[in-house]
Write a structure and sequence with these properties.
The protein is an all-beta fold. The chain has one domain (2-90). Helix content is 0%, strand content 46%. The protein is built from no helices and 7 strands. A 4-stranded antiparallel beta sheet has the order 3-2-4-5, with no helix packed on it. It has a 3-stranded mixed beta sheet with strand order 1-6-7, with no helix packed on it.
Protein backbone atom coordinates (compact mmCIF):
# COMPACT_ATOMS: atom_id res chain seq x y z
CA UNK A 1 0.00 0.00 0.00
CA UNK A 2 1.21 3.48 -0.85
CA UNK A 3 0.08 6.69 0.84
CA UNK A 4 0.98 9.93 -0.94
CA UNK A 5 1.00 13.26 0.88
CA UNK A 6 1.83 16.84 -0.07
CA UNK A 7 4.31 19.03 1.86
CA UNK A 8 1.28 20.57 3.61
CA UNK A 9 0.34 17.10 4.89
CA UNK A 10 -2.80 16.64 2.83
CA UNK A 11 -3.60 13.63 0.68
CA UNK A 12 -2.25 14.04 -2.86
CA UNK A 13 -5.54 13.71 -4.72
CA UNK A 14 -4.79 13.40 -8.44
CA UNK A 15 -1.26 12.01 -8.04
CA UNK A 16 -0.55 8.85 -10.05
CA UNK A 17 1.67 5.89 -9.18
CA UNK A 18 3.10 3.53 -11.79
CA UNK A 19 4.44 0.29 -10.34
CA UNK A 20 6.54 -2.25 -12.23
CA UNK A 21 7.26 -5.67 -10.76
CA UNK A 22 8.40 -8.83 -12.55
CA UNK A 23 7.76 -7.18 -15.91
CA UNK A 24 4.15 -6.26 -15.12
CA UNK A 25 2.91 -2.69 -14.88
CA UNK A 26 0.13 -1.40 -12.63
CA UNK A 27 -1.13 2.18 -12.48
CA UNK A 28 -3.40 3.81 -9.91
CA UNK A 29 -4.36 7.35 -8.99
CA UNK A 30 -5.35 8.93 -5.67
CA UNK A 31 -9.04 9.75 -5.93
CA UNK A 32 -11.54 11.55 -3.77
CA UNK A 33 -15.14 10.60 -3.39
CA UNK A 34 -17.01 7.34 -3.25
CA UNK A 35 -20.73 7.52 -2.84
CA UNK A 36 -23.31 9.49 -0.91
CA UNK A 37 -21.88 10.62 2.46
CA UNK A 38 -18.77 8.44 2.15
CA UNK A 39 -15.32 8.28 0.61
CA UNK A 40 -12.74 5.66 -0.26
CA UNK A 41 -9.32 5.05 1.29
CA UNK A 42 -6.73 7.46 -0.17
CA UNK A 43 -3.98 4.82 0.04
CA UNK A 44 -3.21 2.91 -3.16
CA UNK A 45 -3.19 -0.87 -2.86
CA UNK A 46 -1.15 -2.93 -5.31
CA UNK A 47 -0.96 -6.72 -5.50
CA UNK A 48 2.54 -8.08 -6.17
CA UNK A 49 1.90 -11.81 -5.92
CA UNK A 50 5.14 -13.54 -4.94
CA UNK A 51 7.38 -10.58 -5.86
CA UNK A 52 9.57 -9.18 -3.08
CA UNK A 53 9.89 -5.64 -4.44
CA UNK A 54 8.71 -3.20 -7.09
CA UNK A 55 9.89 -0.06 -8.84
CA UNK A 56 7.62 2.95 -8.27
CA UNK A 57 7.21 6.15 -10.22
CA UNK A 58 5.05 8.93 -8.74
CA UNK A 59 3.66 11.71 -10.94
CA UNK A 60 2.53 14.48 -8.62
CA UNK A 61 -0.31 16.87 -9.42
CA UNK A 62 2.14 19.60 -10.51
CA UNK A 63 3.59 17.23 -13.15
CA UNK A 64 6.86 16.44 -11.38
CA UNK A 65 7.94 12.81 -11.27
CA UNK A 66 9.84 10.96 -8.55
CA UNK A 67 11.20 7.40 -8.89
CA UNK A 68 11.69 4.82 -6.14
CA UNK A 69 13.43 1.64 -7.31
CA UNK A 70 13.32 -1.60 -5.32
CA UNK A 71 10.59 -0.73 -2.82
CA UNK A 72 10.00 -3.76 -0.59
CA UNK A 73 6.68 -5.59 -0.75
CA UNK A 74 4.44 -6.21 2.25
CA UNK A 75 4.44 -2.70 3.69
CA UNK A 76 2.46 0.51 3.91
CA UNK A 77 4.78 3.20 2.57
CA UNK A 78 4.18 6.93 3.02
CA UNK A 79 5.77 9.16 0.38
CA UNK A 80 5.82 12.95 0.67
CA UNK A 81 6.22 15.09 -2.42
CA UNK A 82 9.77 16.43 -2.60
CA UNK A 83 10.95 14.58 0.53
CA UNK A 84 10.69 10.94 -0.51
CA UNK A 85 9.70 7.94 1.55
CA UNK A 86 8.95 9.09 5.08
CA UNK A 87 7.82 5.92 6.77
CA UNK A 88 6.90 2.35 6.17
CA UNK A 89 5.23 -0.22 8.31
CA UNK A 90 4.59 -3.87 7.80
CA UNK A 91 1.36 -4.89 6.17
CA UNK A 92 -0.13 -8.33 6.43
CA UNK A 93 -3.41 -9.40 4.96
CA UNK A 94 -5.64 -11.59 7.07
CA UNK A 95 -6.43 -14.95 5.45
Amino acid sequence: MIRLVTPAGSDAIGARVTLISEGKKQIDEVRSGGSFISHNDFRLHFGLGKANSADLSVRWTDGKTENYPGVAAGQIATIEEGKGMLASGSFSAKP
